[in-house]
Automatic annotation (TrEMBL):
The gene is queH. Disulfide bonds join 205-207. Belongs to the QueH family. This is Epoxyqueuosine reductase QueH. Keywords: 4Fe-4S, Disulfide bond, Iron, Iron-sulfur, Metal-binding, Oxidoreductase, Queuosine biosynthesis, Redox-active center, tRNA processing. [4Fe-4S] cluster binds at residues 41-42, 123, 126. Pathway: tRNA modification; tRNA-queuosine biosynthesis. Catalyzes the conversion of epoxyqueuosine (oQ) to queuosine (Q), which is a hypermodified base found in the wobble positions of tRNA(Asp), tRNA(Asn), tRNA(His) and tRNA(Tyr).
Amino acid sequence: MHKERMMHTAMNKRNYQKELEAKISFHAGRGEVPSLLLHSCCAPCSSYVLEYLSQYFHITVLYYNPNIYPEEEYHHRVLEQQRFIGQFPMKYPVSFIEGTYDTKRFYQMAAGMERLPEGGARCMACYELRLREAAEYAKRLGLSYFTTTLSISPMKDAQKLNEIGERLAKEYGVAYLHSDFKKKNGYLRSVQISKEYGMYRQDYCGCIFSMNQKSVNPLESIQTYEEREER
């Protein structure tokens, strides 16, 4: 019975990469280049995403990450994001917006969840905090879609990220672009681009809590993710 349930779940699992490809094909078939608000968690994660999506969208990168600690680290990551956008050749120009570095908002959100492990409720709330800002910017600027680079990480749950995005899309009336950027070797490609451009690659997600739990190697997690997808 348990095995049958697992098979049923696997058969009904959504393939967000295929949904993204279908959306790209739809607009390309109509000769359209839609606009996209892309929330970026960091320059390395955005590298493959920008290489991929800038062929099909007019992109505005929103760097909104009030979770990052310490402040010096935040500014380092912002500059690296701007440097990459300025240097990487893209079919359509990419614009950049730096959000407010409002750490108070993040710590208020995390209150009571400080001791939870990475990947738990605190992280889900943090994803929503940042995706909500992306949805607000997309609506304010009148853009076609919003999405985030976060799903490229093998340590981030694409299903939960997309569920948050879908819910916010209904709330704000702005379309969410489904994604699972770790598919098609997206994470490994981001590592390759980062090396080619001499990019700073941090060894923790960003917040003080992840800094204290930075023992997991994303490259090792890739194998676990791929094994799970094959089942």
